[in-house]
Amino acid sequence: MQIKAEASLSILATKFDAFVLDVWGVLMDGAAPYPGAKDCLQELRNVGKRIILLSNAPRPASLVAERLEFIGMGPSLYDHILTSGEASRLALAERTEPGMAALGRSYFHIGPNRDQDLLQGLKYSCTENLDTADFILTTGVVDESDKLDRYEPCLQIAKKNNVPMICANPDNVVVRQNGDRVICAGAIANRYQEIGGAAYYFGKPHQTFYETCLKQLKGIARNRILAVGDTLHTDIKGAQDVGLTTALVLGGVLAKRLGITWGESAAPGRLEKLCAEQRIFPDFALPAFIW
Is the dihedral of CA 275, 7, 57, 187 positive or negative? Predict the structure, then answer.
């Protein structure tokens, strides 16, 4: 399947009325904005484009907005933010999603301290004793240098006790601009499933997350919406499953596998080979989110 390579987003802008953008890996690396990303957002706004930010951040959208504003990407540059953390919180509040109604009210948290208030205000309590927990809420790693094996003892205990896991970020990894790779909650949840544990995911690529996003773009035909992301199995697959055109940014999580650094294009055939391995093909490829 042919993937059309473009040098910048400006070439595609006239073909679409709205853009669904990933945050980590497209706009920023979690610590700093990518060069040209803010300018690209501004150019889209200058020509009247609608912009929804769709993130697998395991925290409320308001906190992501604060982070974006801190690095210079204020709310005038987009219309709305949806996060997997918000989706997880809503699912645990409403308890109508599959598996949620049967959950108890005590949970064990795996993740950094900054995510501990995700369920604040809901009728749940956090425990430090895994043996008494009704479920695990996984938002990420405790320390960015952690390897997956740090969590293996915890996962084995949880599996023995048949404790289900809520994964508030289905991503497996995020890549910093210096090339450092930090594992995400999705990698922990995937490992838990490998050993036989039950895991429930909220965020991309799951269809309900995208349908909620598309409600913010009511009146715009799906073939006039472009989804831009840096991962195949979350950003691209999720968008394609709801009928959106997709563009893959190469300088994010896939850069190392493609043998490139940020802003570079992949060697001929290398991207196609990678996509064939995963059986996911974006419509377009961009070296970076630049105008």
Answer: positive
Do 177 and 34 form a contact (C-beta atoms < 8 A)?
yes
Domain assignment present for 133: yes
- pLDDT by residue (tens digit) across 21-49? 999 889 998 788 999 999 999 999 999 99
Asked if residue 97 is part of any domain, the answer here is no
Alpha-carbon gap, residue 86 to 235, rounded angstroms: 17
Distances in Å between the Cα of 214 and the Cα atoms of 144, 240, 276 are 33, 13, 28
Burial class (CB in 10 A: 0-12, 13-18, 19+), 282: buried
- pTM here is 0.86
Alpha helices in the chain (DSSP H): 37-46, 61-70, 84-94, 152-160, 185-194, 207-215, 237-241, 255-258, 270-278
Spatial separation of the C-alpha atoms in residues 168 and 86, rounded to whole Å: 9
Q: How would you label 172-200 residue by residue, b for 16+ Cβ within 10 Å and e otherwise?
A: bebbebeeeebbbbbbbbebbeeeebebb
Q: Which amino acid is at 88?
A: S
For residue range 180-189, what is the model confidence (pLDDT) as tens digits?
778 999 999 9
In a 13 Å sphere around the CA of 78, the CA atoms on its Cβ side amount to 27
Q: Give the three-state DSSP class for 137.
A: strand
What is the structure's pLDDT at 55? 94
| Residue 210 within a domain | no
The answer to whether 260 and 251 are in contact (CB under 8 A) is yes
187: containing domain: 104-201
Which amino acid would we find at residue 154? Answer: C
Residue 138 maps to a domain: yes
pLDDT tens digits, residue range 62-117? Answer: 999 999 999 999 999 999 999 999 999 999 999 998 889 999 999 999 999 999 88
CATH code where residue 160 lies: 3.40.50.1000
